[in-house]
Amino acid sequence: MSKVTFPLRANKSPKIYGYTQPGSEYEGLIKVGYTEQEGIKRIEDQFKTKGPDGIKRYDVLFLESAMREDGTSFWDHDVHNVLKKAKFRNAGGEWFECSVNDLKSAVIAVKNRTAIDLGRTNDFDLRPEQKEAVRITKNYFKSYSVEENKTPHFLWNCKMRFGKTFTSYKLAEQMNWKKVLILSFKTAVEESWEEDLSSHKDFKSWQFIRGKEESIDDIDANKPFVCFASFQDFLGKNKAGGIKVKNKWAHAIEWDCIILDEYHYGAWNENSKGLLSSDDETNHEEQKELDKESGIQNSQKLWNEDVSPLKTNHYLYLSGTPFRAIESGEFIEEQIYNWTYSDEQEAKEDWEGDNNPYQSMPKMVMMTYKMPESISQITETGEFDEFDLNEFFKAEGEGTDARFKHEDHVQQWLNLIRGSGFNNIYTNRQLGADKPPLPFADSRLINTLTHTFWFLPNVASCNAMKNLMMQASNTFYHDYEILVCAGPGAGIGKKALGPLKKLMANPLKSKTITLSCSKLNTGVTVRPWTGVFFLRNTSSPETYFQTAFRVQSPWTIKKEDSPNIEESLKEQCYVFDFAPNRALRLLTDYSCRLNVNENNPEQKVKEFIKFLPVLCFDGSSMRQIDAQEVLDFGMVGATGPQLAKKFESRRLVHVDDMTLTRLMQNEEAMEALMKIEGFRKINSDIEHIINKSEKINKLKKDANEEELSKKKKKELTDAEKDNRGKRKQIQDKLLQFASRIPIFMYLTDHREQTLYDVITEVEPKLFRRVTSLTVENFELLISLKLFNAPLMNSAILSFKRYENDSLNYKGYRRHIPEKIGLYDTVISAEEFHSQ
């Protein structure tokens, strides 16, 4: 476990300069150059001495930043190209016959990307993992049999910052697609889709359509085109329940491929929705904010390929956190390409030679802080008896009138993160213990954290935070431009990004803090962000890490003497959390769901935190923790009743239509289930669900062909409601069986074998007495995949970690096993206890 360091950001200041050289062969011309040095040192270095008569041999006419608002930089060659296209005489090299105002106009054009074809300067190639994604996906699509009578679909389960837009376009190019529709569940991503298509030399012939404003009438039908649209717009209905008139052209086209971006927002189909427990979803207020931001209403969340009115030959799904879709069985292994943060950082570390394509990808560091009792005691205990962030940052009022309920304590927290009064607050610290690195107190962090994103509970708390920071006593925060990106006034989608870019202006010189409760936390790229502050509750690993990875966007500038080489301005980025148990529980959940091929949860966490080190301040000292400690915090840190809830999670059992159909077709399995208490009516319930599912799909297909009558609308709504109720009943009955597994584990002494072997070979009689199932019945249900084995492994590991403490007394224990059995796998004691 390598020690965490805090690298300083390189002191760079890229500029475009222009000077004249009176009395030389270039008199009357302007030299246009690029420098990263301060002031005019670059020019001075070119003229070490004055002329023979002692007169300075140059006149500086122009010096302007070469940084754009979005954090990208440009080179002098970009300005040269604009001047050349504008027909200004180029007298060789960097000398141009133009005025200072002409030069200013050219720089503005480059900065704003407004010159004709100016943006098409990118010519980079695919990285190795992107090439692999294209190869595997292309092979799958090419080999798919049309006889299967279903449109082929493929999922890219790839971390944020994978480069989904460029890679998707390269797949389209290799598949020879001409008509591509991008449906996004987060409209803020439109800018990145358009930029990649319009800036890369490989896509000169391609056209980009904004589905909200344009149609096929606005393009050249003889050239390939990409249409970007929001899911809620293109699949939304008019007031009468039919297709919107302006979108009928898109429904008439047979698309080569429909790409569904940010799919974690659309994975609420009928199958996955039934598999989610309330613990898996974000809290109600958070979900309300996310729904409002995405524009997707509850009735629109049910994406289903089979009833989609849009026609296509291929589906490509993109998401950094598609856990719901994977766990529901929507995609099988051969339909998924995986690329994780660990994969990326390992590739960065293992790269040999120059031109490392991963060099600009920052390393993430998580820093958690246990709040002092003087601060944490004022909140109600949260879900896990811990610091309740939503209560602590609770606010009331609007705009400039918004105030925190616990304003004095929030002020104390603002002082704390910049190191003020630290020793007075943490009175129980060990004598002589070093102060932990605090975000705005440690000089190394202050140097890096010039642009940060703060994730708060709601709009009122965002406004209250700005109002508090602007008070006269908080002079430290007056150095930062504070943006409240929350509420209707902040704009929807990419419109919310505009004000932030304007505030940043030149990101190397400015300092900003963005306050948000749902906007800009997914699907956008803000290169200068280097830190995210989690100041709200959330139980969703998807929301947490979608937000966290916003700060991992590469931030580079052009190298002074090598335009094709970029220097990174962000070696490291940071996640700050003030509810440690919650943070580590989500980290555990996220890392355990990343790699479906690995059964050992500790190994999964170990692989993940190898490149995302975790520093924990426990109120006394700060130290880097290992995988076992992360699991102890995240899994064993829960109480006994909370641990039992793991065996009540709806994700432990599968009740999708495919599984239920498989069950109904197996008489032995049906007889086995009926032996479980409460399952006498199971046959009719399952048959009812399947029949209703077919009816619902038919009604939805009818809805695409004609406007539904009020009677049919009510029939559809009632059918869906009835189906969900029946499905939940079956789920609950299956969970009655799962909830008896901890009882069986308590009663058996066999800890070294898998639970499966203990049930089937060692103590089958005990198992039957506890669950009412024979071994044969149990094996039959397992073969039908009614239970989620990876999640069962995770739940049993949590149980045994919790149980392990009860088997110790002052370091002594009766028996020390060499192995620990989980559900269907065994791990070594060394893995179980590894440091």
Brief description of this entry?
With 835 residues, this protein is of the alpha/beta class.
Shape: globular
Q: Counting H and I runs of at least 4 residues, what is the number of helices?
A: 34
Mind telling me the C-alpha Rg? 30 Å
What structural class do you assign from the helix and strand content?
alpha/beta
How far from one another are the termini?
10 Å
Q: What is the CATH first-level class name of the largest domain?
A: Alpha Beta
The fraction of residues in strands falls at 5-15%
The tally of structural domains comes to 4
DSSP strand count: 27
Which sequence of strands runs across the widest sheet?
18-19-17-20-23-14-24-25
CATH superfamily of the largest domain: P-loop containing nucleotide triphosphate hydrolases
What is the residue-mean pLDDT, rounded to a whole number?
77
Helix content: 25-40%
Poorly predicted segments: 268-287, 289-296, 637-642, 805-816
Task: Find the CATH topology of the largest domain.
Answer: Rossmann fold
Q: Can you tell me about this structure?
A:
This protein is an alpha/beta fold and 835 residues long. The strands form 7 sheets. The protein has an 8-stranded mixed beta sheet, sandwiched between helices. A 7-stranded parallel beta sheet has the order 7-8-6-10-12-5-13. It contains 34 helices and 27 strands. Helices cover 39% and strands 15% of the residues. The longest helix has 29 residues, at 710-738. Helix 22 (601-609) crosses helix 23 and helix 27 runs antiparallel to helix 28. It has 4 domains: 15-112, no CATH class; 128-339, P-loop containing nucleotide triphosphate hydrolases (Rossmann fold), CATH 3.40.50; 344-351 and 361-558 and 572-637, P-loop containing nucleotide triphosphate hydrolases (Rossmann fold); 648-833, no CATH class.
